């Protein structure tokens, strides 16, 4: 499985655990993880979450992302790259 696909699968697993069903939120979560691990460069919102900059995250969030700030923070700080790359 390609690295990007592993990140998307991890975001999907975490979304299921937290009952996040909106595909846009799942895609943003994957972008946050890939930005954090320098797999891809995400947008300004993803970077703000990775930087733990609440003010910038709020300023850059769209309507969907603002609803899932807690989920994004949780996945950013608790979903490790080992878990992602090994499909755990």
DSSP summary, beta strand count? 0
Radius of gyration (Å):
12 Å
Mean pLDDT across residues? 95
Structural class: mainly alpha
The succession of helices and strands, N to C, reads HHHHHHH
- Helical amount among residues, as a percent range? over 70%
Shape: globular
- Continuous helix count: 7
Q: Which spans have pLDDT < 50 for at least 5 consecutive residues?
A: none
Domain count, please report it.
1
Briefly say what this structure is.
The protein is an all-alpha fold and 88 residues long. Helix content is 73%, strand content 0%.
Architecture blueprint of SSEs:
Elements: H1 3-17, H2 23-36, H3 44-50, H4 54-60, H5 63-67, H6 69-78, H7 81-86
Helix pairs in contact: 1-2, 2-3, 2-6, 3-4
Structure, explained:
- The protein has 88 residues and is mostly helical.
- The protein has one domain (3-86).
- Helix content is 73%, strand content 0%.
- The protein contains 7 helices and no strands.
- It has helices spanning 3-17, 23-36, 44-50, 54-60, 63-67, 69-78, 81-86.
Main attributes of the structure:
7 helices; 88 residues; mainly alpha; 73% helix
């Amino acid at each position: 499985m390609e690295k990007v696909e592993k990140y998307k699968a991890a975001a999907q697993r975490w979304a299921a655990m937290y009952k996040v069903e909106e595909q846009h939120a799942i895609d943003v979560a994957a972008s946050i993880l890939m930005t954090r691990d320098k797999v891809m460069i995400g947008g300004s919102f993803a970077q703000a979450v990775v930087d733990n900059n609440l003010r910038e995250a709020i300023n850059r969030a769209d309507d969907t992302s603002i609803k899932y700030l807690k989920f994004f923070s949780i996945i950013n700080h608790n979903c490790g790259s080992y878990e992602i790359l090994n499909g755990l």
